[in-house]
Amino acid sequence: MLKTLMVAEFTDEQQLFGAVKGARQKEISIYDAYTPFAVHGLDEAMGIKRSRLPIVCFLACALGCLLAMWLQIWTSSIDWPINVGGKPFNSFPAFIPVAFEITVLLGGLITVGVFFARSRLYWGKKPELFVEGTTNDRFVIALEVADARIPRDAMIQLLKDCGAISIGYSEVEK
Amino acid sequence: MSGATSKFRKPLVEGEKNYSQVTHEILAPLEGKPTRGWYGAFVIAFIAFAIGFAMVWYQIATGIGVWGLNKTVGWAWDITNFVFWVGIGHAGTLISAILLLFRQKWRTSINRAAEAMTIFAVICAALFPLIHMGRPWLAYWVFPYPNTRGTLWVNFRSPLLWDVFAISTYFIISLTFWYIGLIPDLATARDKVKTAWRCRLYGFLSMGWNGSTRCWHRYEILCLILAGLATPLVVSVHSIVSMDFATAVIPGWHTTLFPPYFVAGAVFSGFAMVLSLMIITRKVMAMESYITVNHLEAMCKVLLLTGMMVGFAYMTEFFTAWYSANPYERFVFINRATGPYAWAFWTMVFCNIAVPQVLWFKAVRTNPTLIFIISIFVNIGMWFERFVIITTSLHRDFLPSSWAMYSPTWVEKGTFLGTFGLFFTCFLLFIRLLPMISLGEIKSVLHFGKGAGHA
User: Which residue in A has a C-alpha nearest to residue B204's C-alpha?
Assistant: First the structure.
């Protein structure tokens, strides 16, 4: 199944903001917007729900910390206890540095992995670019045509009013 | 957009530029022909690297008896160079993580190159303990894994093992953070460059990034998370390095001051190296409008602050030695300042405490030539700091009959030269292969402090 998108191109992030607000007002669903850099506030304007990555990170860090503590206590005081300078086998305070490092390591790597998976980014992926220059100086909005309540002419007019320099159609897999 | 129009805020990027121009100018070194200066520097760096490689080959084949160590001074140049390089590796993550959390927007121009520097410096640092093992092909023994020796586990109570974990984690997280920052810029490069192999390389590495707002939203949160993780990490790494010494019972090493003292010193030496590199790079690569004098001035202020923290630590060490009334502790510090290595101690004091004081003057902080000279002094001074701490604490121990002097052999000198070769070879390749300034971040601060029409 293919889905038709109306793609408009702007030269300034403020115009893109206008288009996003206009589309939301007219209840047209926004497929996505594309910018060469992170435009602050655009995610909120588009109504994107806040990412749950911080929760992933917390869980990954907790896992790392527990794993590191378990490994150190188990190896040093259960599997093969060795007397080092008469210190207790379970030298808990001495285990904190390594536990901290593993916490950060797993927390960071798992969060990055989840980020790649969730954003569907992988090595060698062919980019889905509607407009040339999206990664340079073009600001692009892609609107869903099928379920829009207003006619296409009105949509085009809306985008033109916002300052679109070109408007076209693209099709993507649903 | 960052709408600061205050007269106190200076623009972060000089000149009126548009987005496309920024892309063009920052990506220019990727496709242009390298200059003669670049070739010259690369040849010199590569020769130094080759010398280092030969030295490492020789000392592994012969054994580390080719070093100038003796039974009294069992640790000297090798660990000095290790701590020196790890320290340099601290500025990058400080700039990219801590300054991100503090919302210091001036970091955008220098973070990419500083992070690259961090990664190369950590590689140079890691070489030293690896060589010191004597049998580097068994280096994996430092990791806890089930083995045929019983399973004999590593000793988790040893700070040297903490170091293994700290340095490995620091390297992996810094590399990941750097790569995450590179992805949007690699996508820009992918869509911009003409050479086929570069297109394929950037296309592969950029992971199909297309600037989607949904991705940017997650990306920004990811960067904040990584900065939050890297901030305590950067503090932990040099704290743990300092514990290699502080947990020993050697007078001159056995002090609780070491972790904060080493962290301040690491930031100090790291910023000095960033300044030395950036002042040359901005000139040679014509990036003066991106890495402005304001950036250099901001880094000079950090240099001045951390320099004084280091100076304060020197005084605290001496005070504590006197106040502890411990004769061994007192002896080490008197010997440090007046003994046979006094020249090294006073070189350190001159380079790290006296020289940076001129940074109080704005005229100095805004003069790249002077800053460059000062940064070189600090680099030298910080190397001597580690040498002084390590060697002077060891060479006259509890028994005068075992007192000894240490001087490095040509193998040690060649190895140290080799790490500089490795560092600069990597850095020179980096500025030709990857966008050396973060495009996405520069574009987002392009209008900062200009207030022209962008609210």
Answer: A124
Query: Does residue B273 sit within a domain?
Result: yes
Q: Does A109 lie in the same domain as A61?
A: yes
Nearest-angstrom CA–CA distance, B193 and B211? 18
The answer to whether residue B414 is domain-embedded is: yes
B152 in contact with chain A, both atoms CB, cutoff 8 A? yes
**Cα A80 to chain center, whole Å?**
44
User: Does A74 fall in a domain?
Assistant: yes
Residue B225 to residue A122, Cβ atoms within 8 A = no
Structural domain includes residue A91? yes
User: Residue B210: which of A14, A118, A134 has the nearest Cβ?
Assistant: A134
β-partners of residue A173 are A2
A37 and A65 co-located in one domain: no
Which positions in chain B touch A53 (Cβ < 8 Å)?
Answer: 218, 221-222, 225
Go through chain A and tell me how many residues it has: 174
For an interface test with A, which of B22, B222, B247 has the most A Cβ atoms less than 10 Å from its Cβ? B222
Question: How far is the alpha carbon of A151 from chain B, nearest alpha carbon, in Å?
Answer: 26
- Percentage of the residues of chain B whose pLDDT score is greater than 70: 96
Ramachandran sector of residue A48 (left: φ over 0; alpha: ψ -120 to 50; beta: rest): beta
Q: Structural domain of residue A94, as residue ranges? A: 53-118
Q: In chain B, what's the furthest Cα-to-Cα distance? A: 77
**Is residue B382 within 8 Å of residue B272, measured between CB atoms?**
yes
Q: Which residues of B touch A102 (CB under 8 A)?
A: 165, 169
Q: Give the count of domains, chain A.
A: 2
ipTM here: 0.92
In one letter, which amino acid is B156? Answer: F
Question: What are the residues facing A5 on neighbouring strands?
Answer: A144, A170
> What tens digit of pLDDT does each residue of A66-87 get?
999 999 999 999 988 988 888 8
Instruction: Determine whether the interchain pair A128/B210 forms a contact, defined as Cβ–Cβ distance below 8 Å.
Output: yes
To the nearest whole Å, the CA of B227 is away from the closest chain A CA by: 10
Residues of A in Cβ contact (< 8 Å) with B172: 105, 108-109
Same domain, A80 and A28: no
Above 70 in pLDDT, residue B451? no
Of A61, A135, A140, the CB nearest to B188: A135
d(CA B412, CA B76): 10
pTM (predicted TM-score) = 0.92
In a domain, B257, yes or no: yes
Nearest to B222 among A32, A98, A111 (CB): A111
Chain A: closest CA distance from residue B157 (Å): 5
Angle of helix B293-323 relative to helix B258-284, nearest 10 degrees?
160
Q: Does the residue B451 lie in any domain?
A: no
Summarised one tens digit per residue, pLDDT across range B210-269 is 888 888 999 999 999 999 999 899 999 999 999 999 998 899 899 999 999 999 999 999
What integer best gives the mean pLDDT of chain B?
A: 88
Judge if A69 and A114 occupy the same domain: yes
Nearest residue to B121 via CA among B430, B437, B432, B442: B430
The residues near B140 (Cβ < 8 Å, ≥ 6 apart) are none
Structural tokens at position A27: 């209840």
Chain B residues with CB-CB distance to A46 below 8 A: 213
Buried b (16+ CB within 10 A) or exposed e, B239-271: bbbbbbbbbeebbbbbbeebbbbbbbbbbbbbb
